[in-house]
Amino acid sequence: MKPIQVGLLGIGTVGSGTFEVLKRNQEEIQRRAGRGIEVTMVADLDVARAKSIVGANVQVVDDARKVIANPDIDIVVELIGGYGIAKQLVLEAIDAGKHVVTANKALLAVHGTEIFAAAHKKGVMVAFEAAVAGGIPIIKALREGLTANRIQWLAGIINGTTNFILSEMRDKGLTFDDVLKQAQALGYAEADPTFDIEGVDAAHKATLMSAIAFGVPVQFDKAYVEGITKLESQDIKYAEQLGYRIKLLGISKRTAAGIELRVHPCLVPAKRLIANVEGAMNAVMVHADAVGTTLYYGKGAGSEPTASAVIADLVDITRLHTADPLNRVPHLAFQPDAMSNLPILPMAQVVTSYYLRLRVADQAGVLAKVTGILANADISIDAVLQREAGEGESHTDLIILTHDCVEAKMNQALAEMQKLTTVLAPITRIRKEELN
Ligand SMILES: NC(=O)C1=CN([C@@H]2O[C@H](COP(=O)(O)OP(=O)(O)OC[C@H]3O[C@@H](n4cnc5c(N)ncnc54)[C@H](O)[C@@H]3O)[C@@H](O)[C@H]2O)C=CC1
Ligand SMILES: N[C@@H](CC=O)C(=O)O
Ligand code: NA
After folding, report:
1. Would you say 321 and 125 are in contact if contact means Cβ atoms under 8 Å apart?
2. Which residue positions are annotated as catalytic (predicted)?
3. CA of residue 163 to ligand 2 center, whole Å
4. Which of 159, 167, 205, 207 to mutate to test the pocket of ligand 2 (most atoms within 8 A of CB)?
5. What whole-number distance in Å separates Cα of residue 310 and Cα of residue 302?
6. How far is the CA of 86 from the centre of ligand 1 (A)?
């Protein structure tokens, strides 16, 4: 049988890995797919660099639309990134009846509803394993492997750049900016690294996982997003003393009132496997009713790990493209007419526990006032740590761990505590999850 012909749009970090791994493992891949899979056309703005990667046997153009217009191309792989031209190209490829593979979580988290609807109407597949946690087959696991289950929550380290920054800062005492530069040089960071450090990239991925886990539409605009730029190294140290690690987590939970969808730094018990995921590695925990808790771990960024996921999608499409579209796995795991309208909850309605750090005057009665405010708000305390004031210091740090409470109550208690004259600086609040 004639090989499946693939057109690559963009041959940067992920595109070059995809080309290389497809070539290197072509025999093994063909034995699995039942058919050869070949990149026969590439579009990149940097034609010279693209040619140096693919050699003379592959046609290279600078206009992606030429790939889409080529009737011999069966699958278009979008590896340009962003919501701009990438969106137009993906929609045009669908319109031309091409199956699409993309690693572009930003595009799908924001415009997924429109893109999946267009693909469904046209009877083509849009596959996106590489868009979440790079090489980890988490989309496959959520969409197919766990299909018997009612999923209750998922929580993951789903941005390699920020996990790398947090690990290097903690272990080597390096500065934020230096580690970010390293992450960029290693090809982990997004084109705009603020997407990584402000939690946006993780929120894109959490949005996609949440849609697949709970059968709700992709709703990035409703996600709560907080990155790691305001984290202070002293909080990392205090958390360690209390038996926790701080990780940037993407979390989505099903509750009776709706779906929690949030990304923020989070204290996680140091004894959990996920707390020990270091460097650019990713890990996702999924808790479901039948199977219990499962954990998926691996490389979430980088050229070949991400290519591994792109190629898995190419193989899936190769196997399934002749199947009746109704027999294919739905894009978001649930049939399009069986999606749930459970709302995404505003952050004020989220229930979680907290780490609080207060810079307080070193005076008698301060602790009582603070704990009194928490008690009045019905927030119970799990642990308290008070740093001894140093010689000549008139202030000290008070660290409090709370049990679960609704975020609105905590906001109110924080506002009251902040008004105390003995509280000398803005209070640090970091959320905490036991993940059990
Ligand atoms: N780098 C990584 O580790 C991962 C990246 N991704 C996603 O994969 C996608 C690609 O990322 P990278 O390979 O890292 O980016 P990159 O910046 O290395 O590569 C993008 C390529 O697209 C080309 N390009 C830009 N505009 C174009 C246009 N109009 N027509 C044709 N080519 C064009 C650029 O010249 C470049 O070669 C993004 O959506 C990213 O979020 C997903 C998982 C991991
Ligand atoms: N910038 C992302 C790349 C993969 O999605 C990350 O750091 O995880
Ligand atoms: Na993946």
Report:
1. yes
2. 205 (proton donor)
3. 10
4. 159
5. 12
6. 10
Which domains are seen in the chain, by residue range?
Answer: 4-135+304-338 (3.40.50.720), 138-300 (3.30.360.10), 347-432 (3.30.70.260)
| d(C-alpha 218, C-alpha 207), whole Å | 6
How many whole angstroms separate alpha carbon 363 and alpha carbon 308?
A: 59
Is residue 266 within 8 Å of 247, Cβ to Cβ?
A: yes
- In this structure, what token pair is assigned to residue 260? 């929690």
Query: What are the helix and strand counts (H, E) for the chain?
Result: 15, 17
**Helix extents (H) in 70-219:** 85-95, 105-122, 138-140, 160-172, 176-185, 194-197, 200-214
Question: Which residues keep their CB under 5 angstroms from ion ligand 3?
Answer: 129, 132-133, 136, 138, 309
Instruction: Note if 205 is an active site residue.
Output: yes
13 alpha carbon to ligand 1 midpoint, in Å?
A: 7
For the chain, the 3-state helix, strand and coil shares in percent, each to the nearest 5, are 40, 25, 35
Q: Annotated binding site, which residues?
A: 9-16, 105, 190
Whose CA is closest to atom 1 on ligand 2? 189
Q: Report long-range pairs for 59-62 (Cβ below 8 Å, ≥24 apart).
A: none
CB 347, CB 407: distance < 8 Å: yes
pLDDT (tens place) for every residue of the chain, 436 residues total: 899 999 999 999 999 999 999 999 999 999 999 999 999 999 999 999 999 999 999 999 999 999 999 999 999 999 999 999 999 999 999 999 999 999 999 999 999 999 999 999 999 999 999 999 999 999 999 999 999 999 999 999 999 999 999 999 888 888 889 999 999 999 889 999 999 999 999 999 999 999 999 999 999 999 999 999 999 988 999 999 999 999 999 999 999 999 999 999 999 999 999 999 999 999 999 999 999 999 999 999 989 999 999 999 999 999 998 889 988 999 999 999 999 999 999 999 999 999 999 999 999 999 999 999 999 999 999 999 998 878 888 999 999 999 999 999 999 999 999 999 999 999 999 999 999 9
297 secondary structure, DSSP code: E
Cα distances (angstroms) measured from residue 369 to each of 222, 324, 375, 394, 421: 36, 67, 10, 18, 11
Helix (H, G, I), strand (E, B) or coil at 348: helix
Render 25-83 in DSSP notation, one character per residue.
THHHHHHHHSS-EEEEEEE-S-HHHHHHHH-TTSEEES-HHHHHH-TT--EEEE-S-SS
CA distances from 429 to 30, 120, 348, 355, 418 (A): 52, 43, 14, 6, 12
